[in-house]
Design a protein that fits this description.
By secondary structure, this protein is of the alpha/beta class. The protein has 16 helices and 15 strands. It has helices at about 5-10, 15, 20-25, 50-55, 65-75, 90-100, 115-130, 145-150, 185-205, 230-240, 265, 295, 310-325, 330-350, 380-390, 415-435, and strands spanning about 35, 40, 45-50, 105-110, 135-140, 170-175, 210-215, 245-250, 275, 285-290, 355-360, 365-370, 395, 400, 405-410. α6 (about 90-100) runs parallel beside α13 (about 310-325) and α15 (about 380-390) crosses α16 (about 415-435). It starts with 6 loop residues before the first helix and ends with a helix.
C-alpha cells in the first residue's frame, strides 16, 4: 500500500481531488480541530468561527456532552435503518423535540440534510393536499437537490444548466423593509408582498391549485432579511382562507439561532409543516420533516423513505444538543449577545458610509454594503474586502445577498461578551482597512 500523503501535500493537490463546486469556496482555512467558537489550524493558528459551520454548531464545536452522548451510542450501534429495526434514540429525540417545537408539531420524518427535509415537505404537501402548485419567495434558498433548487431563487448560478426544474413552482417577493418598490419600511414591504401574492392568484395560479407556501421566517442566504412582524401571521391567515399548507424552512433559523428555539415562535405562528436541520445535532447529519400527526398520518407508508435518516448516533447527539441549549441557558444568551452585536453594528454603520443597512434577530446578524453616494447600489466588492480583512485578523464570517453584498455572522450561541466585543473590534479594523481601499 502506498504511503499516505501529509495534509499539507494533499492541500496542494486540492484542485485535483475535489470538484470546483466543493473546493473553491473561501477562505478554505486548513482545519485540524475545533472547540467552542474557535477553529485551530495545523500550524496552531486560532480563528473565531462566526459561521458556526453554517449555523450548525449552535452549542459550540465539540461540546463535551454531545461528544459523550455520541460515543455511548456508537458503542451500542452506529447504524440501524428505521422501520427495519427500531432504536431508542430516535424515539427519545421525537419526545424531546415535541417539548420545544411550536404547539401541535408532533410527528417526524428524519433525514440527513436540510435539502432532504425540503424535498420531504414538498412531497408531503403535494401528496396530502392533492394540489400541484408551490409558491416560494424571491431571494429564498432551500438547498441544491432538484426539488430544493426548484424553489430556490437567490442566485441564478444555483439554477444555471439545470433547467427544466419541477413544474408548478411560483415565486412571490419576500417583504424586504430595506429594499421595497413602495418605499422603505415594514408597512410598505408587507403591502407589496401581499399585493403581489394576490396578483399571482389572479393571473397565474388560483389558490385552489396551491398545495403550499414555502418560506424562510428570516431569509438566510438572501441576506438575513427580517420581514415585517406581521408577515407570517398575514400569510398564515391567507393559507387558512384557501386551505393552503404553510411550510416554514427553519433549517438555519432553528435550534435557538433567533433567540427562541424556532423563528416561528418569535413571530407567533404555527406552520403546517417545518423543515429542520443544521443545529439539530451539532454537526452529525440529521434533519426532519415536522408536522401535526393528524396531517402527516395522511402521508402513507411507501410514499417516502430513507436509509440513513434517524441514524442512532445523530439522534443521540440531537438529544444532547437540546439538553445543552436548555441547561446552559443559550436562548437567553443568544438574545443578549445578539443585541450586543447588533448595537455594535449600528455604531459602525454610523461611522462607515459603505455600510447601508444592519439587521438581524438573535445571533443571525448582517451588514449590507452599498456604494456611497449611489443610493442603495449593492457593493459586493466592499463586502469581500471586509471578509478578507476579518480573516486576516482571526475572524471568519460569510457572504449573503443576491449580489454577495451582505456580510452575515452566525456565531455559536455560547458566545461571551468578551468574544463579541473582540469580534466587533476586528470588524471595526476591517471596515477601516476596506474603506481605505475603496
Amino acid at each position: 500500500m502506498k504511503k499516505r500523503r501529509t495534509f499539507e501535500e494533499l492541500r496542494a493537490d486540492i484542485a485535483q481531488l475535489l470538484v470546483p463546486s466543493f473546493a473553491e469556496d473561501s477562505p478554505n482555512f486548513p482545519l485540524e480541530r475545533a472547540e467552542g467558537i474557535y477553529l485551530y489550524g495545523p500550524d496552531g493558528r486560532r480563528v473565531m468561527d462566526f459561521t458556526a459551520g453554517f449555523a450548525v454548531a449552535n452549542v459550540g464545536h465539540c461540546h463535551p456532552k454531545v461528544l459523550e452522548a455520541a460515543r455511548k451510542q456508537m458503542e451500542k450501534i452506529i447504524h440501524s435503518a428505521v422501520g427495519l429495526t427500531l432504536h431508542e434514540s430516535v424515539l427519545q429525540l421525537c419526545d424531546a423535540l415535541i417539548d420545544v417545537l411550536p404547539s401541535g408539531m408532533n410527528m417526524f420524518f428524519f433525514g440527513n440534510s436540510g435539502a432532504e427535509a425540503i424535498e420531504g415537505t414538498l412531497k408531503a404537501a403535494r401528496y396530502i393536499s392533492g394540489r400541484p402548485a408551490i409558491i416560494a419567495f424571491e431571494g429564498g434558498f432551500h438547498g441544491r437537490t432538484f426539488g430544493a433548487a426548484s424553489v430556490t431563487s437567490i442566485k441564478s448560478k444555483y439554477r444555471d444548466h439545470y433547467e427544466p426544474f419541477l413544474p408548478g413552482i411560483y415565486f412571490a417577493p419576500f417583504p424586504d423593509p430595506y429594499r421595497c418598490p413602495l418605499g422603505e419600511g415594514p408597512e410598505a414591504a408587507l403591502r407589496w408582498t401581499m399585493m403581489r401574492i394576490q396578483e399571482l392568484f389572479e393571473r397565474l395560479v388560483p389558490p385552489s391549485q396551491v398545495a403550499a407556501f414555502l418560506v424562510e421566517p428570516i431569509q438566510g442566504e438572501g441576506g438575513y432579511i427580517v420581514p415585517p412582524p406581521d408577515f407570517l401571521k398575514e400569510l398564515r391567515g391567507l393559507c387558512d382562507r384557501h386551505q393552503i399548507l404553510l411550510i416554514l424552512d427553519e433549517i438555519q433559523t432553528g435550534f435557538g439561532r433567533t433567540g427562541e428555539m424556532f423563528a416561528s415562535q418569535v413571530f407567533g405562528v404555527r406552520p403546517d409543516l417545518m423543515a429542520i436541520a443544521k443545529g439539530i445535532a451539532s454537526g452529525f447529519p440529521l434533519s426532519a420533516v415536522v408536522g401535526n400527526r393528524d396531517l402527516l398520518k395522511k402521508w402513507k407508508f411507501g410514499s417516502h423513505g430513507t436509509t440513513f435518516g434517524g441514524n442512532p448516533v445523530a439522534c443521540a447527539a440531537g438529544l444532547a444538543t437540546l439538553e445543552v441549549i436548555r441547561e446552559e441557558g443559550l436562548l437567553a444568551n443568544c438574545r443578549k449577545m445578539g443585541a450586543r452585536l447588533l448595537q455594535g453594528f449600528e455604531a459602525l454603520k454610523a461611522e462607515y458610509p459603505i455600510v447601508g443597512h444592519v439587521r438581524g434577530k438573535g445571533l443571525m446578524v448582517a451588514m449590507e454594503f452599498i456604494v456611497p453616494g449611489e443610493g442603495k447600489k449593492a457593493n459586493p466588492e466592499a463586502a469581500g474586502r471586509v471578509l478578507d480583512e476579518c480573516y486576516r485578523r482571526g475572524l471568519i464570517a460569510y457572504t449573503a445577498g443576491a449580489h454577495g453584498q451582505v456580510v452575515r455572522m452566525m456565531p455559536p450561541l455560547i458566545l461571551t461578551e468578551a468574544q463579541a466585543d473582540e469580534a466587533l473590534s476586528i470588524l471595526n479594523e476591517s471596515l477601516a482597512a476596506a474603506s481605505k481601499a475603496t
